[in-house]
């Protein structure tokens, strides 16, 4: 919802632009992890003429490189690092350079990944080049995401939610691109090339959308505002949203992300003698208020990244070889996870349970650790220690449904509850802390994936 005196977003062009930009920020990560079988086939020594994006035995006879573990770790460590460096980068590098430079760098690195499909290369150098690309791409993606969130701070909340929706659909988009490339019927090399060219087209569209923003009157109106004016406008927008919601809970997924950030009607009451905003809020004081919620966020992502995709991508169908076994992992692992994760995040639009004062939240978060042994005991052909207790496909699909929807719901819930636990002027610090702990959880999970893989 825009202010009454603001220009109209003609044909919703600004909204569409931010949706595509959101999609572009998470396309790199999702396209790399969805193509894990392709990379493992290359690292197993398959020639370009026989390399497939997906092979039935997609873990390969040898997985000496631990590709799925390393790609997860080297994707998340840059996020943690650049979350810490954000304040420095914001002061030293202009916003346009950060956003446009990051998009161009990601485009070039993905073009390199696509070009390597046609290059005959031994596994060692191919692994090194791919890991360097993963690290640099995710470093630029972290800068890009942080910079775009900074821009969205000056826009009405609906545009932030459109951006988040684009991010949420990036994984679904990557999984569908994988399935289409597999079903295309062309030779394996052409299929792989087409798959990796797809995100290049997505990044090009993101660049075009960003370059178009200065030429759209609606975007110029908000992006040119001073921070204080933009903050006042955002407060006004949140007040309008709150008036249209029932019981303080947004009535649609498009409102949830930022309505709760400034839920003025559910504010923690300050004591009469408490100073209202005296200088910068203390990070330590804010941390004392949200530490349990932040710990829950860390644990949610630690569990998720410790097995997805490092363990889940190794699970194969127990049925006889055929079409279903070929499409099993892209559908039941990646597509199913992304759809259910997105649905889980949307549930917080309709209810928030348990609330910030309940001790049930830590219990629910800790229960998710059960998914680690459950996935490790599914049908993973390459194992030497643990038995297979859940060989049927139905077990894996059931575990993945619960795993994904609980991940999406608990992540969204913790991010919604944290701002409700602090005073208004402390919410920016709380948001920054939660972003840091989010990245910390991702990195911890990626590191633990090596241990769980070794235990198989």
Automatic annotation (TrEMBL):
It is a multi-pass membrane protein. InterPro entries: ENT1/ENT2, Eqnu_transpt, MFS_trans_sf. GO terms for cellular component: apical plasma membrane; basolateral plasma membrane. The chain crosses the membrane at residues 12-39, 70-90, 97-117, 129-150, 162-186, 192-213, 290-315, 327-348, 360-382, 394-417, 429-452. Keywords: Cell membrane, Glycoprotein, Membrane, Phosphoprotein, Transmembrane, Transmembrane helix, Transport. One of its GO terms (biological process) is hypoxanthine transport. The keyword Zinc does not apply. SUPFAM superfamilies: MFS general substrate transporter. Pfam families: Nucleoside_tran (PF01733). GO terms for molecular function: adenine transmembrane transporter activity; cytidine transmembrane transporter activity; guanine transmembrane transporter activity; neurotransmitter transmembrane transporter activity; purine nucleoside transmembrane transporter activity; uracil transmembrane transporter activity; uridine transmembrane transporter activity. Coiled coil: none annotated. It comes from the Eukaryota. It is found in: Apical cell membrane; Basolateral cell membrane. The keyword Manganese does not apply. It catalyses: adenine(out) = adenine(in); cytidine(in) = cytidine(out); hypoxanthine(out) = hypoxanthine(in); inosine(in) = inosine(out). Belongs to the SLC29A/ENT transporter (TC 2.A.57) family. Bidirectional uniporter involved in the facilitative transport of nucleosides and nucleobases, and contributes to maintaining their cellular homeostasis. Functions as a Na(+)-independent, passive transporter. Involved in the transport of nucleosides such as inosine, adenosine, uridine, thymidine, cytidine and guanosine. Also able to transport purine nucleobases (hypoxanthine, adenine, guanine) and pyrimidine nucleobases (thymine, uracil). Involved in nucleoside transport at basolateral membrane of kidney cells, allowing liver absorption of nucleoside metabolites. This is Equilibrative nucleoside transporter 2.
